[in-house]
Design brief:
The protein is α/β, with parallel strands linked by helices. The chain has four domains: 50 residues, ADC-like domains (N-terminal domain of TfIIb), CATH 2.20.25; 273 residues, Rossmann fold, CATH 3.40.50.740; 188 residues, Dimethylsulfoxide Reductase, domain 2, CATH 3.40.228; 113 residues, Barwin-like endoglucanases (Beta Barrel), CATH 2.40.40. The protein is built from 25 helices and 26 strands. The protein has a seven-stranded mixed beta sheet, sandwiched between helices. Strands 21-25-22-24-23-26 form a six-stranded mixed barrel. α3 crosses α22 and α18 packs across α20. The radius of gyration is 25 Å and the shape is globular. The two termini are 45 Å apart. It binds ligand MGD (2 copies), iron/sulfur cluster (SF4) and molybdenum atom. One ligand MGD binds next to α19, β15 and β21.
Length: 704
């Protein structure tokens, strides 16, 4: 039996797994023992990674919608020809930017890079990632505060901390292997800040039951309290940061006296939290979607960064203002996709970077985009306005996951040509496309993924592709050739070629990976960036900013802050409850296209959309366990859910897992002004009983 080590392509931790293969079949999957991330553990999704396109077979050739509105099989040649003919015709008539793509954090770095070359460089189109729904808040926060999108930590910091503060993060469900490491650290006090008594909050030493979106005020008040008590590291602030005096004066407005009204946390508890931060010798802050997906997410993330900076809790063991990534290759998308910045980082108007990247790719500089992509929400708006007429969706399922998701359906109805490239032809998005391009899943691919702590890991083909099967890389090459890119593809023949190009683009940048090779990565412990040519790999875990130098021009970190803005979502008499959303169970992944192949998960998870409701509220409204109820949202849409009664939500709150299409039918189009990340986590809704006479005015969700 052959044993092949590869990376799990679900969550951003990037556990490594050993695939035991015999006669072209995966006999067993086991977690790699000495891999620094997961050290011989993994979650149920990783263990079941053999089940990709097995029960639900993948296709070997594309599907095209015919005049009778049926999807019919066509050859790959016809697929590429149709793609190119339709997209370029639209561009000819309506300008190059009348076509766009939306991609993902779940394909290999090489595929992202090639997509950026074909789509952004050659076709001249806008293309954003679903990472906009997830990590863009952290990206902007890092760039402004640190001078580069460079998260400080290594996962081991969770084990070296004496105080672990989890903010808007539920790792018990979303990052289980990270949670293992938190639990392993018996010396740490674990504090979870979450409006919900999540699985993580229940298992923490302290649950800070903040009001939804109260975080910015909480962190500004904490900063003020820390300053007033002199609980700050003056020498760190003086030597390694900029803007502290302005920040100090800004936060002086946020006093203990006012804190409870907005955050729901009493003066005493806020003071206690400040004291815990002060008493900690190695305090680490970890945030995820409870912060990123907010209408003022960027400033909130920076408020966390500011506290780490002013207390000197960064660049040392067990510390850091640390944002965990969601998807397996979100970090690849952030730095090597040519969407919001040049390959290897840098803005599109940075003369030096343009020159360096053009030279690395051996292309004319004029071929590089001159500006960042239009963000996801603007792409959808422009489709609805009729300005964008062709859309290409790769490895994401926006009909389900996009905010206010019926707007996506409306947008698709306006498109002249809609292409979906996925491993399954029956996703909610693929079902409504004109052309479906089937890719094989990651277990048949070669490439590199970059995890949450900047660790590159090798994806190796566990199974051979069968006749007619193509990877996303093959598909992109096919499209590029058909577009007539010719010699522009000479340096992109294989994934390894693309990796070599990305190495060159990264040279001299904070994410320099010139020292990495496929050979070094394969069967290894992974390699964190930066890793420069000639550098020796001395330790398995490396953090950034140990030298207290940041990537800004002055080499100092910035205190960035702003006045809180009014929450665009209001709780009113019409919509008196707050609907929160997020991950449901360890076994369910996003829109469930992949995890539905796991019988063990199907047997224990709800088939129907459900919503958590507090026992007291259920009693007041006379709602019983498992009763079907209807939620009406401030965005004008109503959807039905099964009521699951639990005290994990407060009386005035509801929580709906994102694994059901109903949830995002209710989320309104509200975005952070800087990152354009949707403010998914807070919706105002009302509850209607379904079996009550006269509860009319409801239109059945068109999709169900
Ligand atoms: N099993 C599983 N694991 C996954 C995924 C999956 O689909 N399934 N998806 C992956 C991806 S892409 C991502 S991005 C990560 C997400 O990982 P997480 O962000 O940890 O998961 P979420 O459930 O989205 O949200 C975390 C918590 O934010 C809380 N929250 C909501 N509003 C607020 C608020 O105003 N303030 C605070 N402080 N907290 C708030 C919610 O109650 C929730 O408990 O998970 C990754 N891991
Ligand atoms: N209300 C609410 N909405 C949310 C969130 C929330 O917390 N609340 N979270 C948001 C976040 S953080 C995220 S990341 C998004 C996720 O949203 P999506 O990206 O839409 O979710 P997935 O189900 O992961 O979609 C990935 C798609 O890629 C396909 N796929 C898998 N592997 C491959 C491959 O190798 N090649 C190709 N071509 N296709 C492949 C899968 O079959 C699937 O259809 O959801 C967002 N939506
Ligand atoms: S914790 Fe994340 S990376 Fe590890 S096995 Fe589970 S889904 Fe995969
Ligand atoms: Mo995500």
């Amino acid at each position: 039996m052959k044993k092949i080590q590869s990376v799990c392509n679900y969550c951003g931790l990037g556990c490594n797994l050993d695939f035991h293969v015999e006669n072209g079949e995966i006999m067993m999957v086991s977690p790699t023992e000495n891999y620094p991330v997961n050290k011989g553990f993994c979650c149920i999704k990783g263990l079941n990674l053999d089940k990709q396109c097995t029960k639900i077979k993948g296709r070997r050739s594309p599907l095209l919608r015919n005049d009778k509105n049926e999807m019919v099989e066509i050859s790959w040649k016809e697929g590429f020809e149709t793609f190119v003919k339709r997209m370029t015709t639209i561009q000819k008539h309506h300008g190059s930017e009348s076509v766009a793509f939306i991609s993902t954090g779940q394909i290999t770095t090489e595929e992202m890079a090639l997509l950026g070359h074909v789509g952004r460089n050659y076709m001249g189109i806008n293309g954003d990632g679903n990472t906009r729904l997830c990590m863009s808040t952290s990206v902007v926060a890092h760039k402004q505060s640190f001078g580069f999108d460079a998260p400080p930590y290594t996962l081991n910091d969770a084990q070296l901390s004496d105080t672990i503060i989890l903010i808007g993060a539920n790792p018990v469900v979303a990052h289980p292997i990270f949670w293992e490491r938190v639990k392993d650290n018996k010396n740490a006090k674990v504090i979870t800040i979450d409006p919900r008594r999540s699985e993580t909050a229940r298992n923490s030493d302290i649950w800070v039951d903040i009001k939804p979106k109260g975080d910015l005020i909480l962190f500004y008040t904490l900063a003020n309290v820390l300053i007033e008590n002199g609980w700050i590291e003056n020498s760190y602030i003086e030597n390694y940061t900029e803007g502290f005096e302005e920040f100090k004066s800004h936060v002086s407005k946020f006093t203990l006296k006012d804190v409870e009204k907005i955050t729901g946390i009493s003066e005493k508890r806020v003071l206690e939290l400040a004291r815990i931060i002060h008493n900690g010798k190695r305090v680490s802050f970890w945030w995820t979607m409870g912060i990123n997906q907010g209408y003022e997410g960027v400033r909130t993330a920076q408020a966390i960064i500011n506290i780490a900076l002013m207390t000197g809790n960064i660049g040392r063991e067990g510390t850091g203002a640390n944002s965990l990534t969601g998807q397996c290759n979100a970090m690849g998308s952030r730095i090597f996709s040519n969407t919001s910045g040049l390959y290897g980082g840098g803005e599109y108007d940075n003369v030096e970077r343009r020159k360096a990247v053009a030279e690395a790719l051996k292309i004319e500089e004029s071929l590089l985009p001159s500006k960042p992509t239009l963000p996801y929400n603007v792409i959808i708006d422009k489709i609805n306005k009729g300005e964008i007429k062709g859309l290409w969706v790769i490895s994401t399922n926006p009909r389900h996951s996009w905010v206010n998701n019926q707007e996506f359906k409306k947008a698709v109805d306006k498109l002249e040509f809609f292409v979906v490239q996925d491993i399954y032809e029956d996703t909610d998005s693929a079902k409504i496309c004109d052309l479906f391009l089937p890719s094989v899943p990651a277990i048949k691919k070669t490439g590199v993924m970059i995890n949450t702590e900047r660790r590159m890991s090798a994806i190796l083909p566990i199974l051979e592709k069968e006749d007619g099967e193509l990877t996303d890389y093959d598909i992109l090459l096919g499209i590029g050739k058909e577009l007539g890119m010719g010699r522009l593809l000479d340096n992109w023949k294989t994934p390894e070629d693309a990796f070599e190009l990305m190495k060159k683009c990264s040279k001299g940048m904070p994410c320099d990976i010139t020292g990495a090779t496929y050979e070094l990565l394969s069967g290894s412990k992974g390699i964190q960036w930066p890793f420069k040519e000639g550098q020796l790999l001395k330790e398995d875990e490396r953090r950034l900013y140990e030298d207290n130098k940041y990537y800004t021009t002055s080499k100092k970190a910035n205190f960035i802050f702003g006045d809180p803005i009014k929450n665009p979502i209001e709780i009113s008499i019409d919509f008196p409850y707050t609907l929160n959303s997020g991950r449901g169970t360890v076994g369910q992944w996003h829109t469930q296209t992949r995890t539905r192949e796991m019988d063990v998960v199907n047997s224990i998870t709800s088939k129907e959309a459900y919503v958590n409701i507090n026992p007291e509220l259920a009693k007041d409204l006379n709602i019983e366990q498992n009763e079907k109820i209807r939620l009406s949202s401030c965005n004008g849409v109503k959807s039905e859910f099964i009521a699951k009664i639990t005290d994990s939500v407060k009386k005035e709150h509801l929580y709906a897992p994102i694994h059901y299409i109903e949830t995002n039918s209710l989320t309104p189009s509200v975005f952070d002004p800087y990152s354009k990340e949707p403010s998914y986590k807070m919706v105002s809704v009302n509850i209607e009983k379904i079996n009550v006479e006269g509860a009319g005015g409801y239109e059945k969700n068109q999709d169900r």
